Amino acid sequence: MLNIVTLGDPILKKHSTLVTSINEDVERFLNEMFDTMYMGKGIGLAAVQVGKLDRIFVTHVPRDMPRVFINPEIVETSLDEEIYEEGCLSIPGINADVIRPYAIKVQAWNERGKPFTMDAEGLLARVIQHELDHLNGILFIDKLDDKKRNRLLKNYERKAKAG
User: Fold this and answer.
1) Residue 1: inside a domain, yes or no?
2) Which of 32, 76, 82, 131 is catalytic?
3) For residue 76, what are the domain limits?
4) What are the tens digits of pLDDT across the range 51-103?
5) How many domains does the chain contain in total?
6) Domain assignment of residue 52, yes or no
7) Looking at the domain assignment, is residue 121 inside a domain?
8) Residue 32 annotated to the active site
């Protein structure tokens, strides 16, 4: 299992770089990412969350199959938005309502290096957006207003000191 990087580590604010080839190392890393996500009871995990600045994330939302996204890019978003409570394996114990587009179209490579385009809506669309934000150095708390973010950060720091 890989170690999950938590809030405060500067790597979480960095932009990830494009993956130029998919080889045995990438395949092994993807398997480790899935294992780590499942152990953490998550439904998405970005490479940066385990300390690697590659444009990779994995998802497995309820009632969907496990998915791999390499070099993902959102090419379309719906005008309809939805509020939903998000959490993050890199900010354990903190959840907040975040507004995001309800549906998206995303392009990426799969684990075999084949390009694909897919439409996603609801929870899968949200997870894809959340994980793609990680690849751009954005955390879900960055999408909150200052007052709410500061309150959550104080709660997080208090829990971290007590833990």
Assistant:
1) no
2) 131
3) 10-162
4) 999 999 999 999 999 999 999 999 999 999 999 999 999 999 999 999 999 99
5) 1
6) yes
7) yes
8) no
